[in-house]
Every structure is written in C-alpha cells, then in structure tokens.
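Most newcomers find our protein records easier to grasp once they have seen one. The structure tokens are whole numbers drawn from a learned vocabulary of backbone shapes. The record below serves as our worked example for the rest of this section.
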Amino acid sequence: MAGGLGTSEHFTSLEPKVFVEEILGFERNDYKLRNVCRIVQVPNLQATVRLATRGSVDEKVKELEEPNLKRADYSTVSFSLWKNVGEVAFSDEARKRVAEDLMRLEIEDTARDLARAENSQIASALEAGGTTSAGHDWGGSNNPAEDILPKIADMYNLDLGYDPQDILMHPLVYADLITNDDVMKEVTHTQVMQTGRITSVYGLNVVIDINLTNTLAIILDRNAPACLLGLGGTSAARWRNEPAGYDAYIIRQWLQPLVPRANAVQILTGVHA
C-alpha cells in the first residue's frame, strides 16, 4: 500500500492541514444535531451576540404617512468556547506489522468521536435550556399526536410566533413512535419496511440521536433560533516522539452550544417508559 494512508511514508509526510480536511470530511456525515442550530463564528473564542426580541416593522402604512419610529429590542448571549481534542498515534511497530489502512481507520474513528462529542454537548444544552411539559408513553396505547400537535399549536401562538420544524428523539423513543398503532395508520408499512425510517411526523422532521435522553422528545424552531452553535475553528499539529517510537497528530475543535430562547425548545417528557 505504498503511498496510502497508514503507511509510514504517508503518515510522517501528511500535513496537518490535510489531516484537518480528512477529519472534517468524515465528521460531516456524523453531525446529527448541528443542522438544528444556527452557526455563529467565534474566532476569538469569546463573543457577545445580540438577538432581536421585538420587531420594528409598521404594517399597512398609508400613502404620505410617516411610519412610527421604532427600535428593536435585543437580548444578548455570551460565548466562551471550550475545546474538544482528539489524538491519532501510531507506533513504529504497528505500522510495520499490519497492511490495513490504519491511518484512515484512525481518522474515521476520531472524526466520529469528535462529532459525537459535539452532538452530546448540543443535546445537553437543548435539554437544559428548553421548556418542559409532561407527555405520555408512546410505547403504549397513547396517541403521540395528542402530545405533539398541541405543543406545535402552543409554539405558533407565542408572542414571537415560532414555527417548529423538527422533533428530536433518542432511538428508543423513535422505536416507540414507529411502532405506535396511531402513527402507523398515517404511514405506509411499505415505506417503513423499505427505508426503516419515518423521516417526518405531523409536519416535523424526525431527528434521531443517541445522545438525547431516552424518555423525552424535543420540538424546536431552528430559525428562532432554538440553539446557537459557536464555532472557533479547528486546528491540528503533528509530532514525532523518537524515544518512544511513534508518530502522532492532535486535533482541536473549539465550540459551544447555547439556547437563547427557552420557548423555542419544547421538551415532552415521559414519552418512553
């Protein structure tokens, strides 16, 4: 495998920039919860962001009338990013003993673990920052629509007029949803058998992630925004430990998820027993 990832020649010559690109390329497929966040670039790792809390638009202004002068109200959120760190290391012996593409395997595993760390941190922020109300066990005879549809209506009726797009859940909650008799009346068995998925329910995109608590479901408006994800960039470094006989890379990602509007994140508890 001369010249391939995992060979001694390639490992010691792989530039950190290329290493970062490899990691980010594999990571992209594992981001589950980033898509429900609004991304905020925070290159200096600390920042304060303003969010409008009241509109400044006059409606149906008549001809030759001057609109009222309004000022938008703002709330602020402050970022202080932390870093997640992954490492990839190969001993001289490991590179000589095996012919597999070890470098690529290590890159894939590191990308997966960094993405999982981000997913876990977003899940924790959403669960800690949202508004909680009691639901019912979807694994029993309860109809999930009786929990979900009133909550959607409540979000529409709030002052800011939230428009929820997503429902997030743990795989165990999803298993209850997909086998619920009332839900199955609304979808075709063929769709479930062929794809193994219900991609939407009651107009909401279904997002499944193992890092969410397995007894709740989260309905949110990503445009509110429900969650801000501050990103401070990704960097990597390469080094050789000659006495110990190994080559290594370290990759660092700076980030922080914040929930600025609790009402835009509605949490239904008790939906899985």
